[in-house]
Amino acid sequence: MAKLELQELTGITVEDLMIESEKVAHVQLNNPLEHALLVLVKSGYSVIPVLDHTYRLQGMISKTAILNEVLGMERFEMEKLSEIKVSETMLLDVPVLKKSDSFLTALKAVVNHAFLCVLDEEGYFEGILTRRAILKKMNRYLHEQVHYHPTGDKTNV
Ligand code: AMP
């Protein structure tokens, strides 16, 4: 594999690194929490996107928020899981990216978020960008710099 140059790294866009929507576990607005918890547990993720029936992003739902809803004074009131809808419990304030956003914009965004949803201009869900994908590219770039310039030669940095 050819060495990754700084210009190539900064030329990378969100589109180059994102996970396409078909591969992203998600739930729908009117799903009961029971279904959301099942998807979260089976997928192994702690937070996933919430979409409406037209595939527009509406929020995020987390295991913690669901468990909070069923946490009663004396026990977990699990029967509530079938009564409450995802739309009543989801997180609404969700930061997003566009496919055309640059590597540097994405890098800044993933400092505070494990992943971000990628939307088109009309709010339709196109996929997600994870912190892992950004760190993998940064890791490769920095290790190659150290390998090619072990003495600290900064001509290519
Ligand atoms: P990872 O980089 O794989 O640790 O993913 C970071 C976070 O992004 C996970 O905890 C999930 O919240 C979300 N995520 C990653 N991949 C998926 C996926 N295929 N479907 C839904 N959410 C995902």
Structural overview:
This protein is of the alpha/beta class. It has 7 helices and 7 strands. It has helices at 6-11, 14-17, 33-43, 63-70, 86-89, 103-112, 131-148, and strands at 19-20, 27-28, 47-51, 57-62, 96-97, 115-119, 125-130. The strands form 2 sheets. Strands 1-7-6-5 form a 4-stranded mixed beta sheet. Helix 6 (103-112) links the parallel strand 5 and strand 6 (115-119). The relative contact order is 0.20. Residues 19, 23-25, 45-48, 114-115, 128, 130-132 line the site of adenosine monophosphate (AMP).
The best one-word shape is elongated
Strand element count: 7
The residue-averaged pLDDT reads 93
Major sheet characteristics? 4 strands, mixed
Bound molecules: adenosine monophosphate
Sequence of strands across the biggest β-sheet: 1-7-6-5
**What amount of the residues lies in strands?**
15-25%
Helix and strand pattern: HHEEHEEHHEHEEH
Decide which structural class fits the backbone: alpha/beta
Multimeric organization: single chain
Separation of the first and last Cα atoms: 19 Å
User: C-alpha Rg, in Å?
Assistant: 19 Å
Features:
18% strand; binds adenosine monophosphate; 157 residues; 7 helices; 3-stranded mixed beta sheet; 4-stranded mixed beta sheet
Short description:
This protein is of the alpha/beta class and 157 residues long. Helices cover 39% and strands 18% of the residues.
Secondary-structure blueprint of this entry?
Layout lengths: L5 H6 L2 H4 L1 E2 L6 E2 L4 H11 L3 E5 L5 E6 H8 L15 H4 L6 E2 L5 H10 L2 E5 L5 E6 H18 L9
Parallel strand pairs: 2-3, 5-6
Antiparallel strand pairs: 1-7, 3-4, 6-7
The chain binds adenosine monophosphate.
Adenosine monophosphate binds next to strand 3, strand 7 and helix 7.
